[in-house]
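Lecture 7 notes: from sequence to structure.

We start with a single chain of 363 residues. Read the sequence below before looking at the structure.
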Amino acid sequence: MKFTFALSLAFIGNVAAFAPAATNSRTVSSALFMAENGEITPLRIGTRGSPLALAQAYETRRRLIENFPELEEDGAIEICVMKTQGDMILDKSLMELGGKGLFTKELDTALLGNEVDICVHSMKDVPTWLPDGTVLPCNLPREDTNDAFITANGEIKRIADLPDGSVIGTASLRRQAQILAQNPTLKCVNFRGNVQTRLRKLDDGVVDATLLAIAGLKRMEMQDCATSVLEWDEMLPAVAQGAIGIQCRSDDERSLKYIDALNCMDTHVCVNCERAFLEALDGNCKTPIAGQARIIDGKIVFRGLIAMPDGSLKYETEATGEIADAVEIGRKAGEELKAQAGEKFFEMMVEMSPQQVLGQITK
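Now the structure, written as tokens:
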């Protein structure tokens, strides 16, 4: 299976690739913030530079303009691209690099240093704690949260149908644990890089299959690359997968006004429930954790799991309750799994070396 469309995007490396067409100059709206010299003070959006991150930044820009027409003026919004540690080091696993925060630290620094006004994040990359002086009050409407399963030949549509010994590329311990729980003969190899890089490796025969969030593929209009979309029973997604979050300084009333108008409350409630679950488990990139919340018939329905990296042990929980209790539901679910697994489970995680946890080589 050739991922022609995906590979055509592999070398997109600048903001202009995702920018809308230039508009004619026009008089600056009086609603915009002006510097003392009369120039526009732009709303500066901080983002990583990957094609997916840029797509999310421009999605945010589009929604801002829809809600605040004055922001369509030339120079009213500025996209500020920066590289994070997680973007620059691709030959090591996330766990070896230090886990959470690898894709947000540089953005946090820029935000606190007043180099940007808001930061757009994939929520699953955001630690459960935020730096003092910042808030994350906004989640855009959530995309499909499930994982896409992509095979080289496009014929095998389920993990269970892969031949014994097949090689699957994934940088996610969550995915690895659930894959090996289904078939311990499968081999998972550390598979990093942006979406286009991973699809090229699959096309080159480096691995037999890989998994990616379908949300990211949809945001880049690449969903046709998916062989199938896995249901929760086969692959429970990561906490906050498919959600975009927007962060700003806690005392920045201008930015708060803008991003508060974009918040999707249903998404925000579900993400907060999932992140409370993760926080209760003290989750990091060394522990395979999955958690998802949905609002069904006016109730919040949560499902979570933790597992050993080799899939040999897995603990699961489900909970339903009032939407107003979402954070408490997530917290209690995390505490329940922590009790189920016992102290020994988490001691084993701490004692394991990266090589023992991963059981992987980098591809």
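The chain is about 35% helix and 20% strand. Keep this in mind for problem set 3.
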